[in-house]
Design brief:
The complex is a heterodimer of chains A (about 290) and B (about 625).
Chain A (H helix, E strand, L loop, with lengths): L17 H31 L30 H37 L1 H15 L3 H11 L4 H28 L2 H8 L4 H37 L11 H8 L8 H31 L1
Helix pairs in contact in A: 1-2, 1-9, 2-3, 2-5, 2-7, 2-9, 3-5, 4-5, 5-7, 6-7, 7-8, 7-9, 8-9
Chain B lengths: L25 E10 L6 E8 L4 E5 L6 H8 L7 E4 L2 E4 L2 E2 L5 H10 L1 E4 L3 H4 L6 H13 L3 H14 L5 H5 L8 H13 L5 E5 L7 H18 L2 E6 L2 H7 L2 E6 L2 E7 H6 L4 H9 L26 E14 L2 E14 L3 E5 L6 H8 L7 E6 L2 E2 L5 H10 E4 L13 H12 L3 H14 L16 H13 L5 E5 L7 H18 L2 E6 L2 H7 L2 E6 L2 E7 H6 L4 H9 L29 H5 L14 H5 L5 E4 L2 E3 L9 H11 L1
Parallel strand pairs in B: 3-9, 3-10, 7-8, 8-9, 14-19, 14-20, 17-18, 18-19
Antiparallel strand pairs in B: 1-2, 1-4, 1-5, 5-6, 10-11, 12-13, 12-15, 15-16, 20-21, 21-23, 22-23
Classes of the chains: A mainly alpha (about 290), B alpha/beta (about 625).
């Protein structure tokens, strides 16, 4: 009919947001480096440390020295070893919580968002029920009623993190559900499960990464709060929260005792925060 | 006025003949606009607008039309560099004038109307107050005099019952009235130049005709110079006095509307004109390769059938019937066009046909098998036989999935193994005119037309029998549209497909369809062969719809279009009761020139007026009226 020819398919450059992409990449890199170093040190501590976390290694309240870099605590245990062992617990819990909450939240969110109708109403009613309690209060009462073991702690923290995931994923899926590529998959007879995994998951992935990092940051803080209140990780097993609690009475004489775990806590949550923030800012350019 | 304007070819600098520069409202010479470090978006553009003339600026998307308008308003983004030998708006040099000057210029001397009237109006402010604000600022009127001026303006732009409309919010107005309100706002500063950027693109065709007429009357009554930017040849042909054709930021041809559209000098204009289907100029015989025209002699073999299909939605406690008792047959191997304005239920019907939605009542049959309630593997089998192509080429492909995988998806459902599927994908890509290796790329690497080609490849990959095409070319430029229509036709012949082609664009439907169904307010009001319906419409709505399509021939200007408004009742007419007015039996009755008592009280059924044409009208346009009445008597 006509011989006007379209230009051949050429990869077009991604437009805009170059500056924010670089900035977000820097943030993500910084966060990853911080957390990688912390995790690496925590995991390898039994390999290079001269002491175990419960071993009396010197006199109590020994100030930082070449033998004990972070000094010793009230029982004469090596504080650096305890700090890193605690990191293992705290970071481990935060990652476990984020992974669990992501999986459960994404499944709930996708099911509610894709299926809609009564399933959506029921799932969201459950989510609203959890959200209607202040999350720390919910965690506190749950841990008080149940035994404060690590498993319970992880499950409780997951419970309070799931709603955010589900909400974010559901909103995005409700919008994706009416997009034409999902409709055309349905016209072709693709099953709902396949639509969810092949079409929805890849499109909500950027949201999930942001939410994952944020959840990990919150989980680490809530876990520490609970441990500080004596309802989380139980001594003698160290955690940053119970280390701060145990050392707060000696704050004036030995300030490094509460400061070291507090700093570790700060560093870890900043690390997660940077990753989350970076992904969030770069989300547009990632698509 | 149009005769003395000179014309250029191939972008040569224009020796403008509009010598009287004091009288010229917009005088642009050698305008070049560059964004950042990119290649110039507009190169060496020269154009003039005199009082009381409409300059049509036509070109495909990305040709720089809108950039020129924004430059004239001094509203280009910061990273744009503008150079010109001359760039005067009402005698003020836009490039060197200080900012206060420019601000004064805007609204008082030059105003703009945008495509999206909803975006141009403040949703939280009454329409009258918005117009009044501009009147206050530019005419320094206040109180009663301002109010009068606002009502005057609203009357001028054809807003009925201005007192009532002035108190309404934008969302309470229909699309056409909203655009009129936006035009009233643009005129409130009594500008000399009006820039209109695709002002009717988002509107239905019958509404568009009214707005175009409004532009003509603004030109004649107020002597305003208008720059009308459009991609639609018909709009330009019906409205403009002079035309400038843009391609890649350059004006390739400029001249009076008759010269440019009737005897185009450049290859590009000819191509544009050729690619734009014209309702009157193109009949099925004239367009070889498109539409068979030849009806199968044997009794029609019905592939797809809707029987009394109805779909109701509940919204805010009210029932809305989107598809109302629609019965349609789709014959094997034909292209059935479905036309209608937005909200007529076309897309809902499409969703019912492909089982994206279920009818509230009625049946759908595929080769005689009712499928509206089938589930599981049987339902999936039906799905393999009916595929769909959507309107938005971007939206119908998963942005994170390689296109090869998208095309393969329906095959995977059928259980075709991966290697065979990949071979099929390569064949399909070739069939739709894309390189074989395109399958490894992501959707964003393709243009709109190419994406639509991919969507077509995907739709036919599972060898369906019927393909539902929901506005498949509406988002594309005319030249690309022509290619996609060509492709659709070729694929249909090669694969012996049946199409249901849904579009609001009558010219395209006429071009490609064997039979046409016209929908209005959820009902099918007329069905028949393409020839019969377009040449001899029986329903008054079909007639109005066809009359409203702007012809690309400037000699055929329609100066009395059907408006979207309910017409004033004539004294001889039957005066319907309030209930009848709220729910007329024939939905078109309030707008119909033939509406009689029966139309308000008795729902018209689809009646066979001749073997190939059915219409749902008590008083069809031809003299078939008594025949119908007799037929009904026989039935009764």
């Amino acid at each position: 009919m006509t011989d006007i020819v379209e230009s051949p398919a050429t990869p077009t450059a991604r437009r805009g947001g170059r500056l924010s992409a670089i900035r977000s990449r820097k943030e993500v890199t910084a966060g990853v480096v911080i957390l990688a170093v912390m995790i690496l040190l925590s995991l390898t501590v039994p390999l290079w440390a001269d002491y175990t976390p419960s071993q009396v290694a010197g006199p109590p309240f020994d100030p930082p020295s070449s033998a004990h870099w972070f000094g010793t605590d009230d029982l004469g245990r090596d504080y650096l070893v305890r700090l890193l062992t605690a990191g293992r617990t705290s970071l481990g819990i935060s990652v476990a919580v984020a992974v669990l909450a992501m999986v459960v939240g994404a499944v709930i969110g996708i099911a509610a968002g894709l299926r809609g109708g009564w399933l959506d109403s029921i799932l969201m009613a459950g989510i609203d029920l959890v959200l209607s309690f202040p999350s720390l209060l919910l965690a506190l009462s749950a841990v008080t009623v149940l035994n404060p073991t690590k498993t319970i702690l992880i499950l409780v923290l997951t419970l309070i993190s799931v709603p955010q995931f589900a909400r974010v994923v559901r909103t995005s899926c409700m919008e994706l559900r009416s997009r034409e590529f999902v409709l055309s998959a349905r016209v072709s007879g693709v099953s709902s499960v396949a639509i969810a995994t092949k079409h929805l998951v890849p499109n909500v992935l950027p949201l999930l990464t942001v939410q994952f990092a944020n959840t990990a940051a919150i989980a680490i803080l809530v876990e520490s709060s609970l441990s500080y209140l004596g309802l989380g990780v139980q001594p003698p097993e160290p955690s940053w929260g119970n280390m701060i609690f145990a050392s707060q009475n000696y704050m004036t004489e030995c300030p490094w005792l509460p400061l070291a775990p507090a700093a570790a806590l700060l560093l870890a949550s900043v690390g997660w925060g940077l990753i989350g923030e970076g992904f969030n800012a770069g989300k547009r350019s990632l698509i | 006025m149009t005769d003395n304007s000179s014309r250029t070819a191939e972008g040569q600098p224009l020796g403008t003949a509009a010598t009287d520069t004091t009288d010229t409202l917009l005088d642009v010479r050698g305008l070049t606009i560059t964004y950042g470090d990119a290649a110039p978006s507009v190169t060496g553009v020269s154009l003039t607008v005199s009082p009381g003339e409409i300059l049509g600026l036509i070109g495909e998307s990305g040709s720089g039309k809108s950039t020129i308008a924004m430059a004239a308003l001094g509203l280009l983004p910061r990273n744009a560099t503008t150079t010109a030998e001359r760039f005067d708006v009402c005698g003020v040099n836009v490039l060197s004038a200080p900012l206060q000057h420019l601000t004064k210029l805007r609204g008082r001397k030059i105003a703009m109307v945008f495509q999206d009237a909803m975006g141009a109006l403040d949703p939280c402010m009454r329409v009258g107050a918005q117009v009044g604000e501009v009147v206050k600022r530019h005419q320094q009127l206040s109180g009663q005099r301002c109010r009068e001026e606002v009502l005057n303006l609203m009357r001028q732009v054809g807003l009925p019952e201005p007192e009532r409309r002035a108190r309404q919010y934008p969302h309470q107005l229909s699309g056409g009235l909203r655009q009129r309100a936006a035009i009233a706002m643009a005129l409130a500063g009594k500008p000399d130049v009006l820039l209109a950027d695709e002002p009717t693109t988002a509107l239905d065709v019958t509404v568009q005709a009214g707005i175009l007429q409004l532009f003509r009357s603004i030109r004649d009554d107020l002597g305003v110079g208008i720059v009308l930017i459009s991609h639609d040849m018909g709009v330009i042909a019906q409205t403009a006095d002079r035309v400038a054709v843009m391609l890649n930021g350059e004006i390739v041809e400029q001249g009076s509307v008759n010269e440019v559209l009737l005897s185009p000098q450049t290859e590009y204009t000819r191509k544009l004109l050729h690619a734009a289907p014209d309702l009157e100029a193109v009949s099925i015989e004239d367009a070889p390769g498109i539409g068979t025209g030849a009806e199968p002699a044997e009794p029609a073999d019905v592939v797809l059938e809707a029987a009394h299909a109805t779909r109701r939605f509940r919204s805010k406690g009210q029932h809305v019937t989107a598809v109302d008792d629609v019965s349609l047959e789709v014959h094997r191997g034909e292209v059935l066009g479905i036309v209608g304005e937005s909200g007529s239920g076309k897309s809902t019907l499409a969703k019912l046909l492909v089982r994206l939605d279920r009818p509230s009542a009625g049946h759908l049959r595929m080769e005689g098998v009712g499928y509206e309630k089938l589930k599981g593997s049987l339902g999936r089998k039906i799905r393999g036989k009916i595929q769909m192509v959507f309107q938005h080429p971007g939206g119908s492909l998963n942005p994170r999935m390689k296109v090869g995988r998208s095309i393969r998806e329906p095959l995977a459902v059928e259980g075709v193994d991966r290697r065979a599927a990949e071979a099929r994908v390569r064949e399909l890509l070739q069939e739709v005119g894309l390189p074989e290796d395109s399958g490894e790329r992501l959707p964003h690497e393709f243009s709109g037309g190419q994406k639509q080609r991919i969507a077509i490849a995907r739709a036919v990959s599972s060898s369906p029998e019927v393909v539902i095409l929901d506005e498949p070319t509406s988002a594309l430029d005319v030249s690309v549209q022509a290619q996609v229509l060509d492709l659709l036709d070729r694929v249909r012949r090669q694969r012996d497909l049946t199409y249901v082609f849904i579009s609001h664009n009558l010219s395209v439907v006429r071009l490609i369809s064997d039979r046409v169904a016209v929908m209005y307010s959820g009902r099918v009001v007329e069905v028949g062969t393409s020839q019969d319906v377009f040449a001899n419409a029986q329903h008054w709505y079909t007639k109005a719809l066809i009359a409203a399509v702007p012809s690309t021939d400037p000699r055929r200007r329609d100066d009395d279009p059907v408006t979207e408004q309910p017409r004033e009742p004539e004294p001889s007419d039957y005066e319907p009761s309030a209930e009848e007015r709220a729910e007329p039996a024939c939905a078109f009755a309030p707008r119909c020139p033939m509406a009689k008592q029966r139309c308000w009280s008795e729902v018209p059924q689809l009646i066979e007026l001749r073997p190939t044409q059915l219409a749902a009208c008590h008083f069809p346009t031809s003299g078939a009226e008594p025949v119908v009445l007799e037929r009904e008597k026989e039935l009764a």
